[in-house]
């Protein structure tokens, strides 16, 4: 997937987006029920949709949407770095060999001794 680049200025970013205002839901009382303060921002080049209805002001919700849009683009642009395998130290290899020898000796002691026929 290609990296997404956004303009650094909010005004330029708003020109790339379609903004829709709608009535918010939930708590907030009568003010929320009668004003279109919630904002839905659609970034046209990428199709990312961000909504915000936290504040009572449409202007503040629009600013919050721009912040969320930048965070979402940053999240989508992130690529996990490739893992570089490391070499096992010599001391660890020796320790593992010693442990295997010790465990095999224990297992040998568990077996029945050979029976001699008379």
TrEMBL record:
<feature type="region of interest" description="Disordered">
    <location>
        <begin position="77"/>
        <end position="118"/>
    </location>
</feature>
<dbReference type="InterPro" id="IPR000352">
    <property type="entry name" value="Pep_chain_release_fac_I"/>
</dbReference>
<dbReference type="Pfam" id="PF00472">
    <property type="entry name" value="RF-1"/>
</dbReference>
<comment type="similarity">
    <text>Belongs to the prokaryotic/mitochondrial release factor family.</text>
</comment>
<keyword id="KW-0488">Methylation</keyword>
<feature type="domain" description="Prokaryotic-type class I peptide chain release factors">
    <location>
        <begin position="23"/>
        <end position="39"/>
    </location>
</feature>
<protein>
    <recommendedName>
        <fullName>Prokaryotic-type class I peptide chain release factors domain-containing protein</fullName>
    </recommendedName>
</protein>
<dbReference type="InterPro" id="IPR050057">
    <property type="entry name" value="Prokaryotic/Mito_RF"/>
</dbReference>
<dbReference type="InterPro" id="IPR045853">
    <property type="entry name" value="Pep_chain_release_fac_I_sf"/>
</dbReference>
<dbReference type="GO" id="GO:0003747">
    <property type="term" value="F:translation release factor activity"/>
</dbReference>
């Amino acid at each position: 997937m290609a990296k997404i680049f956004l303009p650094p200025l909010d005004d330029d970013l708003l020109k790339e987006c379609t903004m829709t205002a709608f009535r918010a839901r939930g708590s907030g009382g009568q003010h929320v029920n009668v004003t279109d303060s919630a904002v839905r921002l659609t970034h046209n080049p990428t199709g990312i949709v961000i909504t915000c209805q936290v504040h009572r002001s449409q202007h503040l919700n629009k600013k919050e949407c721009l912040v969320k849009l930048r965070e979402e683009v940053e999240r989508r642009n992130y690529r996990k770095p490739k893992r570089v395998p490391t070499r096992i130290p010599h001391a660890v290899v020796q320790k593992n060999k010693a442990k295997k020898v010790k465990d095999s000796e224990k297992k040998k002691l568990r077996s029945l001794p050979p029976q001699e026929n008379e």
